[in-house]
Amino acid sequence: MEKRNYRDREGGGPKRYYSQPKADKMEMIFGLRPILEALHAGKTLEKIYLLKGVKHSISQEITEMAKAADIPVSLVPSEKLDQLTRKNHQGAVAYLSAISYSPLDEIVASLFEKGKDPVLMVLDRITDVRNFGAIARNAECMGVDAIVIPSRGAAQINADALKTSAGALNLIPVCREPNLKETLHFLKQSGIRVIACTEKAEETLTDAAVDLTGPIAILMGSEEDGISPEYLKRADVRVKIPMTGQIQSLNVSVASGIILFEALRQRQKA
């Protein structure tokens, strides 16, 4: 996995064109120049919306810097931007992230250097903010070292996510990756086994053969259709949670708590 340039320093300069949208509960920046200034200052942006079909040197620079920092950029019609704010947005709106993201490669290297067996959670398209917050809370309580999410198709980390996590998102590192397929390959190459928690598995969590000790990354799928097939086939182990009821499915945050508890139980016993 190629090492990328991560920046987390706070920049100076006046905070212009900032507002607090009630719907998303995330701090907004609007205007091309303020967004560019935020990027140069090393601010962590959750997402950037740019007006579709407009070519401008500043918007091009924003796009290039966002790509380098793995910040999602969406090209949208003016109606979408007008829905986000009634201010003079100049064809550009961005949201500041409620947290600072961490570089996965540095976290993995640091954990191995400390002699620890990493326990990571990889979330494939978890889009519900409260589910994500609850998963983060489970992860922090059960000793997970970091949470990995995709740059696109993941829940926005806003005030609701922070509240649901009970502060866990301020304690546990979150890594935002542009390509989960490459991320899973990197983890496997680093000696970390990928454990897929899926209803499509043959083995159950209570089977004696299911080993959740050592360096692992637990892969959880979306609320709608579970783990993507392209990611599922890259898992070293597939495991399902045994159930005896008629519904035969669990909320993803509940499922995460169950498998994390079993991982913690095995690791304390080992």
Layout of SSEs?
Elements: E1 18-19, E2 28-30, H1 32-40, E3 45-51, H2 57-68, E4 73-76, H3 78-84, E5 92-96, H4 104-113, E6 119-123, H5 129-141, E7 146-150, H6 159-164, E8 174-177, H7 180-189, E9 193-197, E10 203-204, E11 216-220, H8 229-232, E12 237-240, H9 252-269
Helix pairs in contact: 1-2, 5-9
Structure overview:
The chain is α/β, with parallel strands linked by helices and 270 residues long. It folds into 2 domains: 18-96, Ribosomal protein L30/S12 (60s Ribosomal Protein L30, Chain: A); 104-269, SPOUT methyltransferase, trefoil knot domain (Alpha/beta knot). Helix content is 33%, strand content 19%. It has helices spanning 32-40, 57-68, 78-84, 104-113, 129-141, 159-164, 180-189, 229-232, 252-269, and strands at 18-19, 28-30, 45-51, 73-76, 92-96, 119-123, 146-150, 174-177, 193-197, 203-204, 216-220, 237-240. Strand 3 (45-51), helix 2 and strand 4 form a beta-alpha-beta unit. Helix 5 (129-141) runs parallel beside helix 9 (252-269). Mean pLDDT is 88; it is low at 1-24.
* Average pLDDT taken over every residue: 88
Pattern of helices and strands: EEHEHEHEHEHEHEHEEEHEH
Structural class: alpha/beta
Helix content: 25-40%
Shape from CA axes? elongated
CATH architecture of the largest domain, by name, is 3-Layer(aba) Sandwich
* N-C termini distance: 31 Å
Strand proportion, as a percent range, falls in: 15-25%
**Under the CATH scheme, which class of the largest domain?**
Alpha Beta
Number of domains: 2
User: What is the topology, as strand order, of the major beta sheet?
Assistant: 8-7-6-11-9-12-10
CATH superfamily of the largest domain: SPOUT methyltransferase, trefoil knot domain
- The CATH topology of the largest domain is Alpha/beta knot
Instruction: Please state the CA-atom Rg, rounded to the nearest Å.
Output: 20 Å
Low-confidence stretches: 1-24
Question: How many helical elements?
Answer: 9
* Main sheet makeup: 7 strands, parallel
Number of strands: 12
